[in-house]
Amino acid sequence: MVQEYGLFIHGKWRASKGKRFETRNPATGEVLATFPLATADEVNAAVKAAKDAFEGWRKTPAPRRGEILLEAARILKRKKEELGRIVTSEMGKVIAEGRGDVQEAIDFYTYAAGEGRRMFGETVPSELPNKMCMTLRMPVGPVGLITPWNFPVAIPGWKSGAALIAGCPIVFKPSSLTPLCAAKFVECLDEAGFPPGVVNIVPGYGTTAGQYMAEHPGINKIAFTGGVDTGKHVYESAAKKMIKVGLELGGKNAIIAMDDANVELLMDGVMFGAFGTAGQRCTATSRLIVHEKLYDQVVDELAERAEKLRIGNPIDEKTDMGPVASADQEAKVLEYIGIGKREGDQLLTGGKKLAGGPYDRGFFIQPTVFAVNRKKRLALEEIFGPVLSVLKAKDYEDAVAIANSVRYGLSSSIYTNDLRWAFRAMQDLEAGITYVNAPTIGAEVQLPFGGTKETGPTDTREAGTTALEEFTYWKTVYVDYSGRLQKAQIDTAKLVGE
Ligand code: TXE
Fold first, then answer.
1. Does residue 371 sit within a domain?
2. Fewer CB within 10 A of the end CB, N or C, for the chain?
3. 248 tagged catalytic
4. Beta carbons of 417 and 395 less than 8 angstroms apart
């Protein structure tokens, strides 16, 4: 039985007047559920519900908001296996990663719940007597979440957890490839007891529901993860309204392997970084920059290791890599493989769509490794699939120059046993994240996450201590208890007793 979902507005699932679309398993082609394409009127209704709920939610003491988040974390934990399997069925990452996707939301909700009892401001001395100065965090108001398909529970978990603890109701527009994960996640939030209107979901396409929301005058902040072009568009809409916007727009992340690197460790890291989630992580290892002394050895071992990966249905625990998420993703990745071949990059392994038997029903591409020229497109552009570009560097400076030569700046990594290279890389790599002796993936929720350059504005940092910045603004409060008019900057003479 294919489940039919509606919209979740003001605490109730409702039927929609919009046309419907299907969500499918990218490994088998099976239809999983159908969803409405939310209309402009329905987005209006969701935004209105969020606006109406704002007053009550912002006045709910933050520790009490935290208790509801903690309850949501418990429910997610109880349903982790069920949700993890849905992530795998709808998005195509292997089941261990499907569970990990849910775990990230559990972790972040647990972390964010604690913020309800912190949410620190500052008290600062006044220049005048009998006067107190402090700062308070204020929620920005209704927030629009626009999320991608690659982390269909984790990314909504990060964004919503921070928004909700800050006191902001949410209107959530998930990717049209993964609405079922989103709906199941929202069911958990509903069960946790968020008041009506605090959590709303409007499924649909980006160019309709997403755009209505990005442009809606009632939305005070957009939290977006997706492609660069869409992100720029959302940024423009936000600028016109002078509202906050959080943008995380992908990467062309590199591992640098210095000549003293532990090759065994490096290979494990590269396989996981490049082919985990079939390369469809914003932090995926898309480039491997190898010191020339190590290059031949690494290139030989890479092909051998990539060929050993078991490709298949991601729900099978033994599978190492599943399909890519959609026909569009498949076409895009195959196009890049074609570009690599046409531009003269050397194909070391893979390069084909898998066909025959169970592969015929899904979007399976071989783990692919190219030795590439640093000026060519495979060295510079985000592919977002199981394609690794290997580049040769003369020395440390050359490796860093290659790493920094792209328009993105999300994640980066260096494998070395020499502290000097490790510490220099922390300073020299133009990226929001640097790993030492670990691949470019594996963010933890208690640390800031975001990038530089076209990955997004550097004031965008999700998770960690910075998550609240995304959904609050600072209010400065002066309390004068002197009982007379005191003038800052003017009454200075009195202060020094002149
Ligand atoms: O992204 P889109 P897609 C990159 C990756 C991938 C490419 C395309 O390279 O191959 O983007 O993927 C909504 N107004 N990343 O098509 O279109 C859309 O419905 C408002 C990297 O999935 O950017 C979805 O909810 N919203 C990335 C979300 O934006 C709009 C993860 C992302 O969709 C909209 C995913 C509009 N005009 C893809 N158009 C990462 N940072 O990791 C679309 N949307």
1. yes
2. N
3. yes
4. no
